[in-house]
Amino acid sequence: MNGSGARIGPSHPKVSGDAEGHILPGLFLVTLGLWWSTKSILKYICKQQKRFSFLITPQFLSRAEILEGIAIIVVVLVAMTGQFYWIVNVKPSPHKEMQEDQIRNWQHVIIYVVLAMLGVIKILCFTISSLPVSLITLMLSNSFFVEAFLIHNHPKSLMVVDSYVHQLVKFTALLAGLTAFIEFLLAKNNVVMELLRSSLTMLQGACLAQIGFILYPKDMEHAWDLNDVNNTAILSIYFGVYYASTYVIIGVNYVLVSWFIKWKLSKVYPSEIQFLKNYEQQEDSEDGM
Amino acid sequence: MNGSGARIGPSHPKVSGDAEGHILPGLFLVTLGLWWSTKSILKYICKQQKRFSFLITPQFLSRAEILEGIAIIVVVLVAMTGQFYWIVNVKPSPHKEMQEDQIRNWQHVIIYVVLAMLGVIKILCFTISSLPVSLITLMLSNSFFVEAFLIHNHPKSLMVVDSYVHQLVKFTALLAGLTAFIEFLLAKNNVVMELLRSSLTMLQGACLAQIGFILYPKDMEHAWDLNDVNNTAILSIYFGVYYASTYVIIGVNYVLVSWFIKWKLSKVYPSEIQFLKNYEQQEDSEDGM
Amino acid sequence: MNGSGARIGPSHPKVSGDAEGHILPGLFLVTLGLWWSTKSILKYICKQQKRFSFLITPQFLSRAEILEGIAIIVVVLVAMTGQFYWIVNVKPSPHKEMQEDQIRNWQHVIIYVVLAMLGVIKILCFTISSLPVSLITLMLSNSFFVEAFLIHNHPKSLMVVDSYVHQLVKFTALLAGLTAFIEFLLAKNNVVMELLRSSLTMLQGACLAQIGFILYPKDMEHAWDLNDVNNTAILSIYFGVYYASTYVIIGVNYVLVSWFIKWKLSKVYPSEIQFLKNYEQQEDSEDGM
Amino acid sequence: MNGSGARIGPSHPKVSGDAEGHILPGLFLVTLGLWWSTKSILKYICKQQKRFSFLITPQFLSRAEILEGIAIIVVVLVAMTGQFYWIVNVKPSPHKEMQEDQIRNWQHVIIYVVLAMLGVIKILCFTISSLPVSLITLMLSNSFFVEAFLIHNHPKSLMVVDSYVHQLVKFTALLAGLTAFIEFLLAKNNVVMELLRSSLTMLQGACLAQIGFILYPKDMEHAWDLNDVNNTAILSIYFGVYYASTYVIIGVNYVLVSWFIKWKLSKVYPSEIQFLKNYEQQEDSEDGM
């Protein structure tokens, strides 16, 4: 890219926060997006071809959702412990920068609380049958919206690149929230909407992890110049690359899941494979109508 | 939170308006949101299980809606009387701040007038059967939109916290209006949308009541510094807490209403309870399909 | 309102354009909104009660739509003639203000051209049956959007009130366009959406006519001070009043149309009235279910 | 228009990029929009009248879509080759303007990559029957959104006209993306939505081609003054004219396609024409109901 000249800052300014606090949540979001895409693809393939439905029974799916809820709660509790450790250890001080750090920490705590509520509602909706299942998608969109709102209200940074990378995360959180809200309104499973949400969640994770590398570089020699406005344009290119990558990842995932299901089926009913191919051709001609 | 240092302002500036004019409408909105959530939960439970439908007959619901309309009109008339008392007693003056106060008062009057129109339309739609019922939801969204529009056009305050708290109210009014408009477009009762609207209305009430405590503090010692931009970030945390709280409140409300209905039923048909449990299990297995 | 002090400007600045060029299009839009609301109410009542359908046959409606299209084209042609008269008579000049006037005139011409296209499409869709009828609603929303876009791109005025009144018109055009677009997406006649569009069109007409009175006052004594920012807040109150008024007007219109239909029916079939009352009661009890 | 005085700049500033790099993609988009409108009209007419369906069989349509995908990929590869030629030949330099050029080139490359992905998905969805077809519309809206995002993040130009013409392209890309996304949500073929998307794509192409003529004029005598804010208002008029033109073009296209189909039919079944006319009259009376 030959843009390295633009990225090297002679003296790297002090930015509050640390690399791990951005990279780990980023990886969590990428994993979540990947898991959601796998779940959606599995459900889609099994719904499309009735023969596979023995692989994914309602009981299996219900248990998977409850496990997902528990996983979210556990991850959130670990992250919150980290935040509280930070909050307690940093002494209150009249210094303005310190105060801003504390505010940011509390804003993160609220984001985690709302995410934990998503986990709780997920568990409740799949154990108590009288609750409406659409509550989960609404809560999901809410947790993304609350995140976007609180990142928007972060104490403002004066460095243009710092401000820009947070805007990207806010933007992806907003888009993921909107996607989840539209899913809630559609009120029926739509595999493409679910994959869109997965891709936006992965994108958000990538942006969040990227913050860790840009704002808190290990190698000060190749650190980004946080005050160069051209670096925001370079980051927008990265953003486009990440987004295109999420589609490639989901595509590869689709192929892998399809292979896995066919392999599983061939072990159980080897004779079904031929039937399957006929079925697909039939579908093909129907689809073309 | 240890942020008390940031909140204490050495000299509290004069802000137009009074605490009661914000706290009382705030409490009204919280009550309205709570009542809406109760109504929606009642309808949802009774619709889900036909056995309960004798509790909520169409006549009962229709009367409840008319009473709600009357209650809204009465509250609005009381509030408008207060506004007019203020308008008449404040002498017209060339002083710029006085003029701004008068403008704000008239803007509030219009908000109340449109809210009263909601009450009138509610009564009309439930007494004249030929009117379309969806008119109520449209009028509801309109009254929130008009509120957001007029708060947006309030004479601008120079104090950053004053401006921010009004922005929060505007934001929640806009969201509640959008939610009501989507409900109107969906054109069928959706319990989760109704609960979302309830939660946003309660949130708006909380923000409005909060203005009363922040801008017109009783205890000048712990008054907020209205010019400190960090206080807006602290308020965004409170906003997140309020929003999470509305969900907890609605959850508790759901449990209470469920218990109430079961208790009522046990008094009327004690033998039905066993039947009910079987019914629930049946629902469960159907839902899991 | 006692705000007259705020409105009197000692020396009224020269604003390009004239009062008639704003008041006449404003009245046209109010008339259009009124006609649309009448048409919608008529269709709604006749659809609700099959007995009335002899009053509004498809042929009658189709002819009414074609007449509406012709009326729109005629009005637009008259308005465009006025614009071209202005364009031709004003000599090209290097004076900047003159140029801005010419630009505004041409922007108005494009708005009129797109409005004329709406008329043409209306006529085509109701004479050629193979064209999709939803094209009309799309074109309607387009003509409002193009209007909003071109008003947004008017050469900027430095006077705060001049800029604000144009923003109000832009805002209402945008809302009316959005409403028409949602109607197009819903793809079925929804009386409340149609009335909403009518009310927003009337509101836009009122705002447009208001510009004529505010920017080009006849009585210079009571002219508005175009540089006083408080006047924009006062105008927002007027905006709220106009909006509430459109609802009252539509309500009165509903009552008048209902009476007219019943009177018409009583002349044709006097004996039907009793039947009608029974029918209404029946509807009532069904609706309450 | 007599506005030539406003457009002549005494000394034309150097703007990065060249005319061909804007005119050729612009023409490609206009062609794409034109092809989409033709395809939609063909499908609409053949769906409306079952008799024509032998003209457009599912196999024919499927092959046309695959060809479209291949054409998009080929065009994108050619355009990307041009971009890479530019990237490689321009030496890296510490000069700020050079860096900005490189950034713009890479942003264009990402836009092309996402467009190529649209072509790939089109081919995949029409060859592998188990993939959901709605993926194409989603990818289409994504490619427009990514384009709008990357144009929004172009290194900012200081010249007001340069910035404005790019805003117009961003605006149309956003609108086309939104239209495609709504089409995806509707999840069924709607001819008017498809024509709307075609018209917006043509509009975007016209705006893009226009950039080539405005920023890189051949005839320096009549070059636009890139710093005159009035020129943006003149461009908004052109924008309106282009939009109205796309509707005229689509209208003419509709007439041509209709004639072509009738002529084709008259050659195959001359006796059907009379039948057709009867059929149309029948449709007419049904439609009027």
Can you describe what's shown?
Four copies of one chain form a homotetramer. Chain A is mainly α. In chain A, 77% of the residues lie in helices and 0% in strands. Chain A is globular. The termini of chain A are far apart. The N terminus and C terminus of chain A are likely disordered. The interface between A and B is medium-sized, with 36 and 33 residues.
Largest beta-sheet details of chain A: none
- How many domains make up the coordinates of chain A? 1
As a percent range, the share of helical residues of chain A equals over 70%
Low-confidence stretches of chain A: 1-11, 282-289
**What is the chain-wise order of helices and strands of chain A?**
HHHHHHHHH
Name the shape of chain A in a single word: globular
What portion of the residues of chain A fall into strands of 2 or more residues? under 5%
Any idea what the radius of gyration of chain A is?
Answer: 22 Å
Structural class of chain A: mainly alpha
Quote the average pLDDT of chain A.
Answer: 83
The most extensive interface, with participating residues per chain, is:
A-B, 36 and 33 residues
End-to-end CA span of chain A: 48 Å
- Compute the number of strand runs of chain A: 0
- Annotation field: number of helices of chain A: 9
Instruction: Please state the oligomeric state of the protein chains shown.
Output: homotetramer
